[in-house]
Amino acid sequence: MKKLLYLALALSFTAPCQANPSADFKPSPANPNLQHNSAVVVDKEVDGADAFIDIPLRIAGFIATVVGTGVFVGVSPIAGLMATYPPHDATDKIIDFLILQPARFTFDRPVGDFNFDSRIDKKKQ
Predict the structure, then answer these.
(1) DSSP secondary structure string, 49-73?
(2) pLDDT in tens, 13-57
(3) In a domain, 56, yes or no
(4) Which one of 30, 52, 72, 77 is separated from 4 by 20 to 30 angstroms, measured CA to CA?
(5) CA-wise closest residue to 42 among 117, 110, 115, 106
(6) Those residues with Cβ within 8 angstroms of residue 7's Cβ, 6 or more apart along the chain or in another chain
(7) How many domains does the chain have?
(8) How far apart are CA 59 and CA 21, in angstroms?
């Protein structure tokens, strides 16, 4: 039973990698080197070294997300008090800095893109 569970777990992690090779990929408007369809984002210039370097960065990003969530839980009363004064966005800024930026770096960043900037202010512009 454990072998079947381990096999199912391994397949669940590798199944997203089994993309349809005949899918219609379109160039990304943000980065012309990236191509994407609805399921997969592919960088034409990524090699094995970029993917190898990317693994510890994603692990560090995940740890930063978890630690940032814990820190936010600890400072949320102070952030709530700071949000009472104008411009009333202290909580949003703290959430973005401690939780959302590391999460976007970990889960939204394409492989090999080490200059990823995920700030909300940049996306609003």
Answers:
(1) HHHHHHHHHHHHHHHHHHHHHHHHH
(2) 555 444 444 455 555 555 555 555 444 555 556 778 888 888 999
(3) yes
(4) 52
(5) 110
(6) none
(7) 1
(8) 28
